[in-house]
Design a protein that fits this description.
The protein contains 21 helices and seven strands. With about 550 residues, the chain is mostly helical. It has three domains: about 30-125, no CATH class; about 135-220; about 250-370 and about 380-465, no CATH class. The strands form two sheets. A five-stranded antiparallel beta sheet has the order 4-3-2-1-5. Helix 2 (about 30-45) packs antiparallel against helix 3, helix 9 runs parallel beside helix 11 and helix 11 (about 220-270) runs parallel beside helix 15. The longest helix has about 50 residues, at about 220-270. It is flat, with a radius of gyration of 32 Å. The termini are far apart.
Length: about 550
């Protein structure tokens, strides 16, 4: 490689690394302007402070709230005539520059605002987030002030609403203005606010609309009609959101069941092994995620940017850890029980209890918590519907697992050997298929999928020794309803069971909803004992 090309690569690498580094912690222009105005506020007189407060009201810098709290608490001091210091703890900071500095306490003079100025500052702090550069804070502040229906905030909300350019922020500001006008507006403004909130299908406004109409001594017919139409629109929209939410929760539960049951569909459906320890492989994956999180926390610190990527490392490690345990179990026990299903059930049940007790001895009997990385925390909002990021990630992962497993079983030599071995183990061995190794890899793969499920379940709930027992019965139902050994049937049945379960629980309650689902499965199996896709075989024993 010549020197010119080497220099080009070095420049590209440098640019890439610099792009990944966090932004500089130096003062922004907004911060510098806010600090200068705060210094003017401290050093100025009553006449100049009025204009300074007006300018500060248009800044949303967090330093303003910190300064106001310090000023009211006697933490703002003057060092001479022109220097203003802010004391935070035992540290002095130059208010103008934001740089820590040394000061002689004997030369400092505490500066306190007047009572009238303190009242003005409190109101300014209440409104400060309306100008925050963080759009989320701006929306939360507008919603909070609007729901308070305080008439003092209404002029500011109206003025700031006209300045918003982001559609989502503007919607929040307008909604806040209209809710406030329900209590503080004229009759015409209340009527227009009700119509606007109805068109907006505002959930928070529903109770305020009812309260607005009931507060009127003799509400007009137009006001009654507008409120009825608005409430109808809001209720219809809420019903639609509830349906979408039920479908999403059903899809989420179905994804959990599918991820848990896919490994069982391979070990039970295609290998004929009733593995009662399948739930413990889920716990292996969950505890692997917990250990990876702890290692990242102790190595890099929980505040480090690298700590947020621990889950990307935990996902493959959870798969590998469960796969290794599964391979060891297959080599040490399962391979002797392929033709003895009852013995395999009892043996794996014993292994299940041994693994659970091992988890209790090593990690403790109490559940442990696995925190979500920043990119998985929070939720994704689409209109008024909100979806948990962790559940969205689970659904995406399940989609990849289904596609990947399908390709492995149909497009690879290993998949061909698996299908041949599962159809007739003796014949496959006679034709040169290494059935022993295929059995081990297949069992390890099914166990690894359970570990993968455990890693994702750690983001939804706590990790404990018996976490897998919650899903083991449901996963067996998924396999049986879908058709023993049929992966497509497992996918369809898991989604169907998840949808029906989540659809019935709001109506019948969690317990009766679960019981109803079990009864429906029993009735279905009475009609189709082989499941959705019954297994077909050319064996003469059938």
């Amino acid at each position: 490689m010549n020197s010119k090309r080497r220099e080009t690569y070095l420049v590209l690498i440098y640019c890439f690394v610099m792009a990944l580094l966090p932004a500089s912690h130096g003062q922004s222009t907004e911060d510098s302007q806010a600090r200068a105005l705060l210094v003017e506020l401290v050093l100025g007189d009553d006449d100049s402070r009025a204009s300074t407060l007006e300018e500060l009201a248009n800044h949303g810098d967090p330093i303003i709230a910190t300064f106001v709290a310090g000023w009211r608490g006697g933490q703002v001091l003057r060092d001479g005539d022109d220097t203003v210091l802010l004391k935070i703890g035992e540290q002095y900071t130059d208010l103008l520059t934001g740089v820590a500095t040394q000061a002689n306490p004997e030369n400092l003079k505490v500066n306190r605002p007047s009572r009238k100025l303190r009242k003005t500052l409190k109101r300014m702090v209440d409104l400060i987030d309306l100008s925050s550069p963080d759009l989320g804070k701006r929306i939360q502040s507008a919603q909070k002030l609007g729901l308070s229906q305080n008439p003092e905030y209404l002029p500011d909300l109206k003025a700031r609403a006209a300045l918003q350019t982001d559609a989502k922020v503007k919607r929040a500001f307008n909604e806040a203005v209209w809710i406030s006008e329900l209590s503080n507006g004229t009759e015409a403004e209340k009527l227009e606010a009700i119509k606007a909130l109805g068109s907006l299908k505002s959930f928070p406004a529903r109770d305020f609309i009812e309260r607005c109409v009931s507060a009127e001594t003799e509400p007009t017919a137009e006001l009654k009609q507008a409120s009825q139409q608005a409430l109808q629109k809001i209720d219809s929209h809420r019903a639609l959101i509830d349906v979408i939410g039920t479908l999403f929760r059903g899809l989420s539960l179905g994804s959990v069941l599918l991820l848990v049951a896919y490994g069982l569909a391979i070990t039970f459906g295609q290998m004929g092994v009733i593995n009662m320890a399948h739930g413990e492989f889920i716990a292996v994956g969950g505890y692997t995620a917990y250990m990876v999180q702890n290692w990242f926390g102790s190595t890099y610190g929980e505040g480090s940017p690298l700590y947020g990527y621990y889950f990307l490392v935990a996902i493959p490690l959870a798969f590998l850890a469960a796969a290794v345990v599964g391979a060891a179990l297959e080599r040490g026990l399962i391979r002797f029980l392929y033709t003895r299903p009852l013995e395999s059930l009892l043996a794996t049940w014993g292994i299940s209890m041994i693994l659970q007790q091992s988890f209790r001895l090593y990690f403790g009997a109490a559940n442990v918590s696995v925190s979500s990385p920043p990119w998985l925390a929070g939720s994704l909002s689409v209109g008024d519907f909100s979806m948990s990021n962790s559940r969205v990630a689970l659904i995406v992962c399940v989609l990849f697992v289904v596609i990947g497993t399908r390709l492995l079983l149909t497009k690879t030599h290993w998949g061909l050997h698996v299908r041949a071995t599962m159809q007739n183990r003796q014949m496959a061995s006679c034709l040169g298929v290494p059935s022993g190794r295929v059995n081990m890899i297949t069992f390890a793969f099914g166990s690894g999928l359970a570990g993968l499920a455990g890693a994702f379940l750690s983001q939804i709930g706590n990790v404990g020794p018996s976490m897998g027992q919650t899903y083991i019965v449901d996963s067996f139902m998924v396999v049986v309803v879908g058709g023993v050994g049929n992966l497509l049937g497992a996918a369809i049945s898991s989604m169907g069971i998840g949808m029906v379960d989540q659809g019935l629980q709001p109506i019948l309650g969690p317990v009766m909803g679960k019981i109803t689902v079990l009864l429906m499965i029993i009735l279905f199996l009475q009609v189709k004992p082989g499941g959705l896709f019954p297994a077909r075989s050319r064996s003469l024993d059938d």
